[in-house]
Specification:
Blueprint: E1 2-7, H1 12-24, E2 28-34, H2 38-46, E3 52-57, H3 63-79, E4 85-90, H4 109-125, E5 129-138, H5 147-150, H6 162-165, H7 177-201, E6 206-212, H8 227-236, H9 249-261, E7 271-273, E8 276-278, H10 287-301
Parallel strand pairs: 1-2, 1-4, 2-3, 4-5, 5-6, 6-7
Antiparallel strand pairs: 7-8
Amino acid sequence: MRTIVMTGASRGIGRIAAEQILRRSPDVHLVVVARGSSGAELSTALGADGHQVSAVSADLGSLASVRTAATEIRDRLDAGDLPPLRGFVGNAGIQYTNAQTAGPDGFESTFTVNVLANHLFVRVLGDRFTAPGRIVITVSDTHFGDFRHNMGMVPGPAWQSPDVLARIGAFREPDTAVAGRTAYSTSKLAAIYLVHEYARRLPAGIDAVAYNPGFVPGTDLARDADPASRFAMRYVLPIMTLTPWATSRRAAGRYLADVVLGDIAAPTGSYVDRNQVTRSSEESYDPQREAEIWHAGERFVGVSS
């Protein structure tokens, strides 16, 4: 038996990936991290066919809540209540209609959920991983910043010091949807930087991989958007999955499960675009920025290198 911890398993590609992981790997005990009672409901649904599933409650927008959840999982591992830890899937993500939304820790919420929450889980659980293990962080091809990858819908990243990016108002006209989308693409670039740094720092046999599902219409990523955008995302844009420009939820979830289970051979530090290992943007390979975001993340989440 082995434990895999997963955020973002409640809906969309995460729910499909969770179902695939359990169906294809009966030896997995899946720990789902979700807010409030939704985690218990999810674990009951996923465990209906006899699969081993348990839930830990956390608000990913609150670092205190994330720390409590990660510590609970660590304590359960130490007590032998969970089998050895072999995987972490940071699949949860959020995109706001502005860059002015702050969480209880004072950090901008996109940055908190998409970057810091994952980092805190990795750092609290890091020395509990048993090889071979794999950390998978869901990223986005919006970090390329070009029409081919963004189709003009999301601005490219606007990198700045992490001390600026972590706070509200980091981008021009911060109360606009454009700023909110810029915060999103920039946070995904930061996540790739951290994956590269994990690959350098994690022990041998514990791999870190960035997974890009491509553009997946019909998910709840835009749940904070205006009504017209939410309607288009859910009911109009899914037709794009009939073209190479978009990925269906089912395919994206299946590919995520493939990466988590190692069915896609991806060396540590790699970038998986749907079901292919490839290069991320040229901007995403920057050792100075990678070290910078690592050390800033350590300060922000309150751990030491």
